[in-house]
UniProtKB/TrEMBL annotation:
Gene this protein is translated from: murD
Stretches assigned to the Mur ligase C-terminal domain: 312-425
Lineage: Bacteria, Bacillati, Bacillota, Bacilli, Bacillales
Domain of life: Bacteria
Pathway: Cell wall biogenesis; peptidoglycan biosynthesis
GO molecular function, one term: UDP-N-acetylmuramoylalanine-D-glutamate ligase activity
Record's subcellular location: Cytoplasm
Catalysed conversion reaction: UDP-N-acetyl-alpha-D-muramoyl-L-alanine + D-glutamate + ATP = UDP-N-acetyl-alpha-D-muramoyl-L-alanyl-D-glutamate + ADP + phosphate + H(+)
Annotated source species: Oceanobacillus locisalsi
Name this polypeptide is given: UDP-N-acetylmuramoylalanine--D-glutamate ligase
Amino acid sequence: MKTWKQFPENVLVLGLARSGAAAAAALLENGKKVTVNDAAATYEDTAVKELQKKGAHFVLGSHPLHVLEGKEVVVKNPGIRYDHPVVAEALKRGILVITEVELVSHLTEQPIIGITGSNGKTTTTTLVTEMLKQSHCKVKLAGNIGIAATEVAQTMQPDEKMVIELSSFQLQGIAAFRPSTAVLLNIYEAHLDYHGDLESYVNAKCQIFKNQDADDYLVYNADDPILQEKVTDAKAKKIAFSATKQLEQMGAWADDTHIYFFEEAIMALEDVVLVGQHNLENILASVAAAKLNGATNEGIQYVLKTFSGVKHRLEFVGRHKGRYVYNDSKATNTLATQKALDSFKKEIILLAGGLDRGNEFDELIPHLQNVKAMVVFGETASKLERIGKEAGVQAVAHANGVDDAVEIGFSLSDEGDILLLSPACASWDQYKTFEERGDIFVQAVHTMD
Protein backbone atom coordinates (compact mmCIF):
# COMPACT_ATOMS: atom_id res chain seq x y z
CA MET A 1 0.00 0.00 0.00
CA LYS A 2 1.26 3.47 -0.80
CA THR A 3 2.08 5.93 1.96
CA TRP A 4 0.27 9.21 2.48
CA LYS A 5 3.38 11.22 3.37
CA GLN A 6 3.10 13.43 0.30
CA PHE A 7 -0.64 14.04 0.66
CA PRO A 8 -1.66 17.33 2.36
CA GLU A 9 -2.76 17.21 6.02
CA ASN A 10 -5.75 19.58 5.96
CA VAL A 11 -8.55 18.55 3.64
CA LEU A 12 -12.01 19.85 2.77
CA VAL A 13 -14.47 17.25 1.47
CA LEU A 14 -17.11 19.17 -0.48
CA GLY A 15 -20.36 17.25 -0.84
CA LEU A 16 -21.07 14.17 1.23
CA ALA A 17 -23.04 11.56 -0.75
CA ARG A 18 -21.44 8.17 -1.37
CA SER A 19 -18.10 9.32 -2.77
CA GLY A 20 -17.69 12.10 -0.21
CA ALA A 21 -18.35 9.78 2.72
CA ALA A 22 -15.89 7.21 1.33
CA ALA A 23 -13.23 9.86 0.72
CA ALA A 24 -13.63 11.36 4.20
CA ALA A 25 -13.40 7.92 5.83
CA ALA A 26 -10.24 7.01 3.89
CA LEU A 27 -8.59 10.35 4.73
CA LEU A 28 -9.41 10.08 8.42
CA GLU A 29 -8.14 6.51 8.60
CA ASN A 30 -4.84 7.74 7.18
CA GLY A 31 -4.41 10.49 9.73
CA LYS A 32 -5.65 13.52 7.81
CA LYS A 33 -7.62 16.43 9.28
CA VAL A 34 -10.97 16.49 7.50
CA THR A 35 -13.76 19.06 7.27
CA VAL A 36 -16.92 18.04 5.41
CA ASN A 37 -19.15 20.71 3.89
CA ASP A 38 -22.60 19.75 2.62
CA ALA A 39 -25.70 21.92 2.19
CA ALA A 40 -28.28 19.12 2.29
CA ALA A 41 -27.00 16.73 4.98
CA THR A 42 -28.04 17.03 8.67
CA TYR A 43 -26.34 16.13 11.91
CA GLU A 44 -28.86 13.32 12.31
CA ASP A 45 -27.69 11.51 9.19
CA THR A 46 -25.99 8.18 9.85
CA ALA A 47 -22.99 9.01 7.65
CA VAL A 48 -22.45 12.28 9.52
CA LYS A 49 -22.57 10.58 12.93
CA GLU A 50 -20.17 7.85 11.84
CA LEU A 51 -17.64 10.30 10.41
CA GLN A 52 -17.88 12.52 13.50
CA LYS A 53 -16.87 9.53 15.61
CA LYS A 54 -13.80 9.16 13.42
CA GLY A 55 -12.87 12.81 13.93
CA ALA A 56 -14.40 14.70 11.02
CA HIS A 57 -15.54 18.29 11.46
CA PHE A 58 -18.78 19.30 9.70
CA VAL A 59 -20.19 22.50 8.24
CA LEU A 60 -23.74 21.78 7.10
CA GLY A 61 -26.66 23.71 5.63
CA SER A 62 -24.72 26.13 3.41
CA HIS A 63 -21.37 26.64 1.66
CA PRO A 64 -19.56 29.49 3.45
CA LEU A 65 -16.17 30.37 2.01
CA HIS A 66 -14.54 30.18 5.45
CA VAL A 67 -14.52 26.36 5.08
CA LEU A 68 -11.43 26.90 2.93
CA GLU A 69 -9.40 28.48 5.70
CA GLY A 70 -6.24 26.46 6.31
CA LYS A 71 -7.13 23.87 3.69
CA GLU A 72 -4.51 22.47 1.32
CA VAL A 73 -6.76 20.37 -0.88
CA VAL A 74 -10.45 20.08 -1.73
CA VAL A 75 -11.96 16.68 -2.53
CA LYS A 76 -15.20 17.56 -4.28
CA ASN A 77 -18.18 15.46 -5.25
CA PRO A 78 -17.84 14.79 -9.01
CA GLY A 79 -21.25 16.33 -9.71
CA ILE A 80 -20.30 19.70 -8.21
CA ARG A 81 -19.32 22.07 -11.01
CA TYR A 82 -16.16 24.12 -11.10
CA ASP A 83 -18.14 27.36 -11.01
CA HIS A 84 -19.48 26.45 -7.55
CA PRO A 85 -18.49 29.32 -5.23
CA VAL A 86 -16.32 27.19 -2.93
CA VAL A 87 -14.59 25.41 -5.83
CA ALA A 88 -14.03 28.63 -7.75
CA GLU A 89 -12.59 30.32 -4.64
CA ALA A 90 -10.34 27.33 -3.94
CA LEU A 91 -8.91 27.49 -7.45
CA LYS A 92 -8.48 31.25 -7.12
CA ARG A 93 -6.45 30.69 -3.95
CA GLY A 94 -4.30 28.01 -5.63
CA ILE A 95 -5.78 25.15 -3.58
CA LEU A 96 -5.68 21.77 -5.32
CA VAL A 97 -9.17 20.51 -6.26
CA ILE A 98 -9.56 16.77 -6.88
CA THR A 99 -12.28 14.11 -6.94
CA GLU A 100 -12.49 11.00 -4.78
CA VAL A 101 -10.99 8.70 -7.44
CA GLU A 102 -7.65 10.50 -7.11
CA LEU A 103 -7.29 9.00 -3.62
CA VAL A 104 -7.02 5.54 -5.16
CA SER A 105 -3.45 6.47 -6.14
CA HIS A 106 -2.60 6.69 -2.46
CA LEU A 107 -4.49 3.59 -1.33
CA THR A 108 -3.30 0.81 -3.61
CA GLU A 109 -0.54 -0.12 -6.04
CA GLN A 110 -2.55 -2.95 -7.59
CA PRO A 111 -3.31 -2.84 -11.35
CA ILE A 112 -6.27 -0.68 -12.32
CA ILE A 113 -8.38 -1.05 -15.46
CA GLY A 114 -10.07 2.33 -15.97
CA ILE A 115 -12.97 2.61 -18.43
CA THR A 116 -14.57 5.78 -19.79
CA GLY A 117 -16.52 7.05 -22.79
CA SER A 118 -19.72 8.91 -23.59
CA ASN A 119 -21.71 5.69 -24.02
CA GLY A 120 -21.22 2.06 -23.01
CA LYS A 121 -19.16 2.53 -19.85
CA THR A 122 -21.33 0.38 -17.59
CA THR A 123 -21.73 -2.44 -20.11
CA THR A 124 -18.00 -2.52 -20.86
CA THR A 125 -17.00 -2.33 -17.20
CA THR A 126 -19.34 -5.21 -16.40
CA LEU A 127 -18.11 -7.30 -19.34
CA VAL A 128 -14.43 -6.85 -18.48
CA THR A 129 -15.06 -7.74 -14.84
CA GLU A 130 -17.02 -10.87 -15.71
CA MET A 131 -14.52 -11.98 -18.38
CA LEU A 132 -11.71 -11.80 -15.85
CA LYS A 133 -13.74 -13.57 -13.17
CA GLN A 134 -14.66 -16.38 -15.55
CA SER A 135 -10.95 -16.67 -16.38
CA HIS A 136 -10.20 -17.19 -12.66
CA CYS A 137 -8.53 -13.79 -12.28
CA LYS A 138 -9.14 -11.99 -8.99
CA VAL A 139 -10.87 -8.69 -9.66
CA LYS A 140 -12.96 -6.06 -7.89
CA LEU A 141 -15.47 -3.65 -9.42
CA ALA A 142 -15.62 0.05 -8.49
CA GLY A 143 -16.31 3.62 -9.52
CA ASN A 144 -19.17 5.33 -11.29
CA ILE A 145 -20.99 2.00 -11.52
CA GLY A 146 -22.10 2.36 -7.91
CA ILE A 147 -19.24 1.46 -5.55
CA ALA A 148 -16.89 4.18 -4.31
CA ALA A 149 -13.37 3.52 -5.56
CA THR A 150 -11.73 4.41 -2.24
CA GLU A 151 -13.81 1.80 -0.43
CA VAL A 152 -12.67 -0.88 -2.84
CA ALA A 153 -9.05 0.31 -2.94
CA GLN A 154 -8.67 -0.16 0.81
CA THR A 155 -9.61 -3.85 0.50
CA MET A 156 -7.35 -4.73 -2.45
CA GLN A 157 -5.16 -7.80 -2.04
CA PRO A 158 -1.72 -8.27 -3.69
CA ASP A 159 -3.10 -10.58 -6.40
CA GLU A 160 -6.20 -8.52 -7.27
CA LYS A 161 -7.03 -6.02 -10.00
CA MET A 162 -9.58 -3.21 -9.92
CA VAL A 163 -11.98 -2.48 -12.78
CA ILE A 164 -13.35 1.03 -12.44
CA GLU A 165 -15.96 2.94 -14.44
CA LEU A 166 -14.97 6.60 -14.72
CA SER A 167 -17.03 9.64 -15.69
CA SER A 168 -15.68 12.86 -17.16
CA PHE A 169 -16.63 14.54 -13.87
CA GLN A 170 -14.33 12.20 -11.95
CA LEU A 171 -11.50 12.37 -14.47
CA GLN A 172 -11.39 16.16 -14.58
CA GLY A 173 -10.37 16.06 -10.92
CA ILE A 174 -7.31 13.80 -11.04
CA ALA A 175 -3.66 14.68 -10.53
CA ALA A 176 -1.67 11.43 -10.22
CA PHE A 177 -4.32 8.75 -10.81
CA ARG A 178 -2.93 6.23 -13.30
CA PRO A 179 -4.68 3.11 -14.60
CA SER A 180 -2.41 0.35 -15.89
CA THR A 181 -5.02 -0.21 -18.61
CA ALA A 182 -7.12 2.73 -19.82
CA VAL A 183 -10.14 2.20 -22.08
CA LEU A 184 -11.59 5.06 -24.17
CA LEU A 185 -14.82 3.90 -25.79
CA ASN A 186 -16.12 6.91 -27.75
CA ILE A 187 -16.81 10.62 -27.64
CA TYR A 188 -20.21 12.23 -28.22
CA GLU A 189 -21.40 15.70 -27.25
CA ALA A 190 -22.47 15.38 -23.63
CA HIS A 191 -22.44 17.23 -20.30
CA LEU A 192 -21.65 20.55 -21.97
CA ASP A 193 -23.59 22.34 -19.22
CA TYR A 194 -20.91 21.04 -16.82
CA HIS A 195 -17.76 21.29 -18.95
CA GLY A 196 -18.69 24.39 -20.92
CA ASP A 197 -17.72 23.17 -24.40
CA LEU A 198 -16.87 20.00 -26.31
CA GLU A 199 -13.11 20.56 -26.13
CA SER A 200 -13.18 20.73 -22.33
CA TYR A 201 -15.32 17.60 -22.20
CA VAL A 202 -12.93 15.71 -24.49
CA ASN A 203 -9.93 16.86 -22.49
CA ALA A 204 -11.55 15.64 -19.28
CA LYS A 205 -12.09 12.19 -20.82
CA CYS A 206 -8.48 12.08 -22.03
CA GLN A 207 -7.21 12.65 -18.51
CA ILE A 208 -7.55 8.87 -18.17
CA PHE A 209 -4.22 8.35 -19.98
CA LYS A 210 -2.30 11.51 -19.03
CA ASN A 211 -0.23 9.78 -16.31
CA GLN A 212 0.36 6.51 -18.17
CA ASP A 213 3.80 5.48 -19.39
CA ALA A 214 5.27 2.87 -21.74
CA ASP A 215 4.48 0.04 -19.31
CA ASP A 216 0.73 0.75 -19.52
CA TYR A 217 -1.96 0.04 -22.12
CA LEU A 218 -4.40 2.43 -23.79
CA VAL A 219 -7.37 0.72 -25.49
CA TYR A 220 -9.16 3.14 -27.81
CA ASN A 221 -11.83 3.24 -30.51
CA ALA A 222 -10.15 3.41 -33.92
CA ASP A 223 -13.50 4.36 -35.49
CA ASP A 224 -13.76 7.57 -33.44
CA PRO A 225 -11.95 10.43 -35.24
CA ILE A 226 -11.67 12.55 -32.10
CA LEU A 227 -10.01 9.75 -30.16
CA GLN A 228 -7.74 8.83 -33.05
CA GLU A 229 -6.33 12.34 -32.92
CA LYS A 230 -6.20 12.65 -29.14
CA VAL A 231 -4.30 9.40 -28.44
CA THR A 232 -1.46 10.32 -30.81
CA ASP A 233 0.68 11.71 -28.00
CA ALA A 234 -0.18 9.03 -25.43
CA LYS A 235 2.88 7.37 -23.88
CA ALA A 236 1.15 4.04 -23.23
CA LYS A 237 1.09 1.08 -25.61
CA LYS A 238 -1.87 1.77 -27.89
CA ILE A 239 -4.30 -1.10 -28.56
CA ALA A 240 -7.10 -0.22 -30.97
CA PHE A 241 -10.53 -1.76 -31.47
CA SER A 242 -12.83 -1.39 -34.46
CA ALA A 243 -16.24 -2.69 -35.50
CA THR A 244 -15.68 -1.59 -39.12
CA LYS A 245 -12.14 -2.57 -40.15
CA GLN A 246 -9.60 -5.36 -39.69
CA LEU A 247 -6.90 -4.74 -37.10
CA GLU A 248 -4.75 -7.88 -37.23
CA GLN A 249 -1.71 -5.90 -36.14
CA MET A 250 -3.41 -3.43 -33.80
CA GLY A 251 -6.02 -4.99 -31.51
CA ALA A 252 -9.63 -6.20 -31.36
CA TRP A 253 -11.92 -6.34 -34.40
CA ALA A 254 -14.73 -8.29 -36.03
CA ASP A 255 -15.70 -9.43 -39.47
CA ASP A 256 -19.04 -10.91 -40.53
CA THR A 257 -18.39 -14.18 -38.70
CA HIS A 258 -15.96 -13.82 -35.79
CA ILE A 259 -14.47 -11.61 -33.09
CA TYR A 260 -10.68 -11.39 -33.17
CA PHE A 261 -7.86 -10.17 -30.96
CA PHE A 262 -4.99 -9.37 -33.32
CA GLU A 263 -4.88 -12.47 -35.57
CA GLU A 264 -6.54 -14.83 -33.11
CA ALA A 265 -10.21 -15.75 -33.59
CA ILE A 266 -11.86 -15.53 -30.17
CA MET A 267 -15.42 -16.70 -30.94
CA ALA A 268 -18.19 -16.74 -33.52
CA LEU A 269 -20.39 -13.65 -33.69
CA GLU A 270 -23.53 -15.78 -33.92
CA ASP A 271 -22.89 -17.02 -30.37
CA VAL A 272 -22.93 -13.51 -28.85
CA VAL A 273 -26.13 -12.68 -26.96
CA LEU A 274 -25.81 -8.87 -26.90
CA VAL A 275 -27.27 -7.13 -29.94
CA GLY A 276 -26.48 -3.88 -31.72
CA GLN A 277 -23.50 -2.18 -33.34
CA HIS A 278 -22.86 -0.11 -30.22
CA ASN A 279 -22.66 -3.28 -28.13
CA LEU A 280 -20.25 -4.82 -30.63
CA GLU A 281 -17.95 -1.87 -29.96
CA ASN A 282 -18.33 -2.43 -26.21
CA ILE A 283 -17.57 -6.12 -26.68
CA LEU A 284 -14.43 -5.47 -28.72
CA ALA A 285 -13.14 -2.97 -26.14
CA SER A 286 -13.87 -5.51 -23.41
CA VAL A 287 -12.09 -8.32 -25.23
CA ALA A 288 -9.00 -6.15 -25.66
CA ALA A 289 -8.90 -5.02 -22.03
CA ALA A 290 -9.62 -8.50 -20.71
CA LYS A 291 -7.03 -10.25 -22.90
CA LEU A 292 -4.38 -7.71 -21.87
CA ASN A 293 -5.10 -8.57 -18.24
CA GLY A 294 -5.03 -12.34 -18.40
CA ALA A 295 -8.49 -13.41 -19.57
CA THR A 296 -8.81 -16.73 -21.37
CA ASN A 297 -10.78 -17.31 -24.54
CA GLU A 298 -12.98 -19.73 -22.61
CA GLY A 299 -13.77 -17.08 -19.99
CA ILE A 300 -14.57 -14.49 -22.67
CA GLN A 301 -16.74 -16.95 -24.61
CA TYR A 302 -18.76 -17.91 -21.54
CA VAL A 303 -19.56 -14.27 -20.75
CA LEU A 304 -20.49 -13.30 -24.30
CA LYS A 305 -22.71 -16.38 -24.68
CA THR A 306 -24.62 -15.63 -21.46
CA PHE A 307 -24.50 -11.88 -20.75
CA SER A 308 -27.83 -10.37 -21.80
CA GLY A 309 -27.03 -6.74 -20.96
CA VAL A 310 -26.87 -4.35 -18.06
CA LYS A 311 -30.26 -3.93 -16.44
CA HIS A 312 -32.48 -1.39 -18.28
CA ARG A 313 -29.86 -0.90 -21.05
CA LEU A 314 -31.18 -2.89 -24.01
CA GLU A 315 -31.50 -5.77 -21.55
CA PHE A 316 -32.73 -9.04 -23.03
CA VAL A 317 -35.62 -10.01 -20.75
CA GLY A 318 -36.26 -13.31 -22.50
CA ARG A 319 -38.51 -14.97 -25.03
CA HIS A 320 -42.15 -14.80 -23.96
CA LYS A 321 -45.03 -16.24 -26.02
CA GLY A 322 -42.60 -16.37 -28.93
CA ARG A 323 -41.71 -12.67 -28.70
CA TYR A 324 -38.15 -11.47 -28.00
CA VAL A 325 -38.48 -8.92 -25.19
CA TYR A 326 -35.98 -6.11 -24.50
CA ASN A 327 -35.97 -3.59 -21.65
CA ASP A 328 -34.27 -0.35 -22.72
CA SER A 329 -35.86 1.92 -20.10
CA LYS A 330 -32.51 3.75 -19.77
CA ALA A 331 -33.19 5.21 -23.24
CA THR A 332 -34.32 8.61 -22.00
CA ASN A 333 -33.54 10.48 -25.23
CA THR A 334 -34.01 9.99 -28.96
CA LEU A 335 -30.35 9.11 -29.64
CA ALA A 336 -30.53 6.13 -27.31
CA THR A 337 -33.79 4.94 -28.88
CA GLN A 338 -32.31 5.31 -32.38
CA LYS A 339 -29.48 2.97 -31.39
CA ALA A 340 -31.92 0.47 -29.92
CA LEU A 341 -34.09 0.46 -33.04
CA ASP A 342 -31.05 0.05 -35.30
CA SER A 343 -29.99 -3.03 -33.31
CA PHE A 344 -32.68 -5.30 -34.79
CA LYS A 345 -33.51 -6.59 -38.25
CA LYS A 346 -36.76 -8.29 -37.18
CA GLU A 347 -40.11 -6.51 -36.91
CA ILE A 348 -40.43 -4.38 -33.77
CA ILE A 349 -43.27 -3.39 -31.49
CA LEU A 350 -41.99 -0.14 -29.93
CA LEU A 351 -43.20 0.97 -26.50
CA ALA A 352 -42.30 4.64 -26.00
CA GLY A 353 -43.28 7.81 -24.18
CA GLY A 354 -42.77 9.78 -21.00
CA LEU A 355 -41.88 13.25 -19.79
CA ASP A 356 -42.42 16.06 -22.30
CA ARG A 357 -39.33 18.28 -22.43
CA GLY A 358 -40.69 20.35 -25.29
CA ASN A 359 -38.82 18.56 -28.06
CA GLU A 360 -40.27 16.78 -31.07
CA PHE A 361 -39.20 13.29 -32.19
CA ASP A 362 -38.80 13.68 -35.96
CA GLU A 363 -35.21 12.38 -35.82
CA LEU A 364 -36.67 8.97 -34.96
CA ILE A 365 -38.62 8.69 -38.25
CA PRO A 366 -35.77 7.23 -40.37
CA HIS A 367 -35.20 4.57 -37.70
CA LEU A 368 -38.80 3.30 -37.63
CA GLN A 369 -38.59 1.25 -40.82
CA ASN A 370 -38.74 -2.10 -38.98
CA VAL A 371 -41.40 -0.90 -36.52
CA LYS A 372 -44.76 -2.44 -37.39
CA ALA A 373 -46.59 -1.10 -34.32
CA MET A 374 -46.09 1.51 -31.61
CA VAL A 375 -47.64 1.69 -28.17
CA VAL A 376 -47.29 5.21 -26.78
CA PHE A 377 -47.88 6.54 -23.27
CA GLY A 378 -47.17 9.48 -20.99
CA GLU A 379 -47.03 13.19 -21.78
CA THR A 380 -45.39 12.67 -25.18
CA ALA A 381 -47.89 10.07 -26.48
CA SER A 382 -49.46 12.37 -29.08
CA LYS A 383 -46.10 13.56 -30.40
CA LEU A 384 -44.91 9.98 -30.81
CA GLU A 385 -48.18 9.01 -32.46
CA ARG A 386 -47.63 11.76 -35.04
CA ILE A 387 -44.13 10.60 -36.02
CA GLY A 388 -45.29 6.99 -36.10
CA LYS A 389 -48.00 7.83 -38.61
CA GLU A 390 -45.61 9.96 -40.67
CA ALA A 391 -43.19 7.02 -40.79
CA GLY A 392 -45.94 4.70 -42.02
CA VAL A 393 -46.11 2.51 -38.92
CA GLN A 394 -49.05 0.11 -39.40
CA ALA A 395 -50.62 0.59 -35.96
CA VAL A 396 -50.21 3.18 -33.19
CA ALA A 397 -52.03 2.57 -29.90
CA HIS A 398 -52.24 4.61 -26.69
CA ALA A 399 -51.67 3.08 -23.26
CA ASN A 400 -52.12 4.38 -19.71
CA GLY A 401 -48.64 3.30 -18.68
CA VAL A 402 -45.93 0.70 -19.20
CA ASP A 403 -47.88 -2.23 -17.73
CA ASP A 404 -50.87 -1.44 -19.98
CA ALA A 405 -48.50 -0.98 -22.93
CA VAL A 406 -47.12 -4.51 -22.47
CA GLU A 407 -50.56 -6.08 -22.82
CA ILE A 408 -51.35 -3.99 -25.91
CA GLY A 409 -47.90 -4.71 -27.35
CA PHE A 410 -48.41 -8.45 -27.11
CA SER A 411 -51.80 -8.14 -28.82
CA LEU A 412 -50.26 -6.22 -31.74
CA SER A 413 -47.33 -8.61 -32.18
CA ASP A 414 -46.70 -12.05 -33.62
CA GLU A 415 -44.29 -14.82 -32.68
CA GLY A 416 -40.75 -13.90 -33.66
CA ASP A 417 -41.32 -10.14 -33.23
CA ILE A 418 -39.26 -7.86 -30.99
CA LEU A 419 -41.15 -6.25 -28.09
CA LEU A 420 -38.99 -3.26 -27.21
CA LEU A 421 -39.40 -0.75 -24.39
CA SER A 422 -37.24 2.19 -25.48
CA PRO A 423 -39.11 5.31 -24.31
CA ALA A 424 -36.96 8.12 -25.81
CA CYS A 425 -38.12 10.15 -22.80
CA ALA A 426 -37.41 10.61 -19.12
CA SER A 427 -39.76 8.77 -16.75
CA TRP A 428 -40.73 11.48 -14.29
CA ASP A 429 -44.23 12.18 -15.58
CA GLN A 430 -45.39 8.75 -14.37
CA TYR A 431 -42.48 7.04 -12.60
CA LYS A 432 -39.84 8.11 -10.08
CA THR A 433 -36.93 6.70 -12.10
CA PHE A 434 -36.20 4.89 -15.35
CA GLU A 435 -35.34 1.89 -13.16
CA GLU A 436 -38.86 1.82 -11.72
CA ARG A 437 -40.30 2.09 -15.22
CA GLY A 438 -38.15 -0.79 -16.42
CA ASP A 439 -38.98 -2.98 -13.43
CA ILE A 440 -42.72 -2.48 -14.01
CA PHE A 441 -42.21 -3.41 -17.67
CA VAL A 442 -40.37 -6.63 -16.83
CA GLN A 443 -42.94 -7.57 -14.18
CA ALA A 444 -45.77 -6.98 -16.66
CA VAL A 445 -44.05 -9.17 -19.25
CA HIS A 446 -43.74 -12.04 -16.79
CA THR A 447 -47.46 -11.83 -15.96
CA MET A 448 -48.19 -12.53 -19.63
CA ASP A 449 -46.99 -16.14 -19.19
